Amino acid sequence: MQVNELGLKNREQWECKGYSLPKFDRAAVTEKTMENPFWVHFGAGNIFRAFQANVVQNLLNEGVLDRGLVVAEGFDYEIIEKMNRPHDGYNILVTLKANGSVEKTVVGSVVESLTVDSENDTDFNRLREIFKKDSLQMASFTITEKGYSLVNGKGEMLPSVVADMEKGPEKPESYIGKVVSLLYTRFQAGEKPIAMVSMDNCSHNGSKLHDAVFAFADKWSKTGLTDKAFVDYIENPAKVSFPWSMIDKITPRPDPSVEEILKKDGVEELEPVVTSKNTYVAPFVNAEECQYLVIEDAFPNGRPELEKGGLIFTTRETVDKVEKMKVCTCLNPLHTALAVFGCILGYDLISKEMKDETLKKLVEGIGYAEGLPVVINPGILDPKEFIDTVLGVRIPNPFMPDTPQRIATDTSQKLAIRFGETIKAYQASPKLHVSDLKLIPLVFAGWFRYLMGVDDNGNAFELSPDPLLDTVRPYVADVKLGEAVDAEKLLKPVLENEKIFGVNLYDVGMADTVCSYFSQMTAGTGAVRSTLEKYV
């Protein structure tokens, strides 16, 4: 049983093993897509394979769509060369359900796979051809938040961006430079309309994409490298739109336990590929069953009926409310709390933490008691029901191989949004008081304790990557378990850092509470557990 066109000809062999297969005529769909593509997606990673590609497959199966997807990978070309093409664009989606069942789907909606490589004339010219087509309605993106940045961590413009801005749209090197070059091709073909839809998991993602695109268009137009009217085209929402969206689906790294399930079924050549850019990709993706994709309904060239596949189309204001509901209250803060304490308490899976009554009570308190009173109901998703699903179905799912160590990555960049916004809302409320918040400062203290790199048993552990580690870790470097600590003296420069917490913790009256918690958590081995049990 091979994951490719030839291996899937024996449908009965796959179906008797419990696999759902594409129900549409893939050859006919491929032909129509090649002639009149409607959707090109940039970013061939796990979230795309598990979510957007599967939605399109379902709609092809139901006859709602008659064309498939074109995927274009602009960061790691080996994904296309070593995974997509050898498997003829197919991949296996393994949905890991909270009730213990596994759903296996062979996804075949991706009918063309290209590299976004301006040195690869065949692929890049094909992309130019696609961008000239009247039929193209949208280009979407899952390239991570970093993909939209034109600068490095120090705020310096990336060398490839500098070179592209000087050379123009002919053969750009940078990711966004290549995207803008393709947009210029569409402009030259008659200023044809298109929606540029970021589907990355970051706030105001459409604006991030717009700003990066505009920077190139503006520079090229001003220096005469493109037609001056190109900027007007980019800035005209009736021609080019940049909708906001909110996406939510957990797709962890392909897990060996899932690979074993497929091997036992007789599926061959499942070995993951680790590319030269350290991308870990396999012929299968494992994912949770829950998924949300809310998109601002701004499509100047029209759009297919993707709402029939479960996507939600609404206003920009509503997308913003849904984003804030998820990121500031109903999911992300709970994940961060479990990540920090999971690392300290020696957990290797987020799901296992939900069997710990103290940690379960902690995240229930952060979500229901401290977060819900200030969350804005977006109307299309109920915040309490969202938390119910997160805490009752999603996080406890024992088959989701997601780790606290992965989620603890970049925590310093997350605290301001995931907790600071709630603190600000309490400040602004006439009925609520910041002093009522007892669990959020517990997480802040837990983060400082985490930065020591010593677990609750006194054993060293490796901290997850974070751009501020070298900045914040020295403040706790000399703290030893069981020794008296002047937490206020040590931590003050960080506690008053609004960039980290979203507020100055002294100004909001929370600094003393954090220091008290931290002192208690460093009293000796087992002190984190006893502090949690005392206050949760």
TrEMBL record:
The keyword Oxidoreductase applies. It catalyses: D-mannitol 1-phosphate + NAD(+) = beta-D-fructose 6-phosphate + NADH + H(+). Residues 40-308 form the Mannitol dehydrogenase N-terminal domain. InterPro entries: 6-PGluconate_DH-like_C_sf, 6PGD_dom2, Mannitol_DH/Oxidoreductase, Mannitol_DH_C, Mannitol_DH_N, NAD(P)-bd_dom_sf. Residues 319-507 form the Mannitol dehydrogenase C-terminal domain. Pfam families: Mannitol_dh, Mannitol_dh_C. Keywords: Oxidoreductase. It comes from the Bacteria. This is Mannitol dehydrogenase family protein. It comes from Blautia celeris.
